[in-house]
Amino acid sequence: MTDTAIQTRRREIATEHLLFKLIEYVEGQHPGLLDTLEQSLDHLGDPADDDSKDDEAVRQIARRMIAGARAETGGGAKR
Hints:
- The chain has three helices and no strands.
- By secondary structure, it is mainly α.
- The chain has helices spanning 3-29, 33-39, 55-72.
- The longest helix has 27 residues, at 3-29.
- It has one domain.
- It starts with a helix and ends in a 7-residue tail after the last helix.
- The chain is flat.
- It comes from Sphingomonas jejuensis.
- This is Anti-sigma factor NepR domain-containing protein.
């Protein structure tokens, strides 16, 4: 694995952790954030312009992240 790939992986792990903590905090203060994020997924897509482009795969990752955040925050509202 190249140094660039290692740094990219480490940044992704750190960013994901901080994002989850931010989501947990905001959802705790203002319930409904997770619902809003979930409702926005239709607009999420993969910006690749080659054969690796897969909008649904990106959305599925986001759905798993939201589900994980719901589990951490006690379920969220899920309207």
